[in-house]
Design goal:
The protein has 147 residues and is mainly alpha-helical. The chain is built from seven helices and two strands; from the N terminus they run αααααββαα. Strands 1-2 form a two-stranded antiparallel sheet. β1 and β2 form a beta hairpin. α4 crosses α5. The chain is globular. The two termini are 26 Å apart.
Amino acid sequence: MENETGHEVADALGDLLKRTLRAGLYQALTENLGDAVDEVTYPVLSGLARTGPCSAADLAVEIGLDRSGVSRRASRLEAGGLVRREPDPADRRAVLLALTEQGARTVETMRQRLADRIEASLSAWPPDEARSFARQLRRFVDEGPFR
């Protein structure tokens, strides 16, 4: 088969990016973090942690949802005290979404849970292989076809 390695990586990425797989992971990461936090609102929290304060439209592009979907999820998170809306200093007519302190703590909990799950899944690997995998994955993300 031509491009055998490319096909193997593409198949693995396809499995990794399946919606059902992501939803199950997000559900595990958000368990017992409050009514506003679940697999549906996870991408908004995670996205805001990466971008910092931004508009719903900009966050929508970052996380792959439409603006109205982001706004609905942000409203749930705002009601839960995890997100706040603030005026955009560059355009007073615009509103930015931002994490509250509680939202930032919640994201930190989710990130720690994710890191723990990754560590557990790599625990059977020789440590050098696990570290090499982490370095190579970072390199692939930084230099690969998605840039």
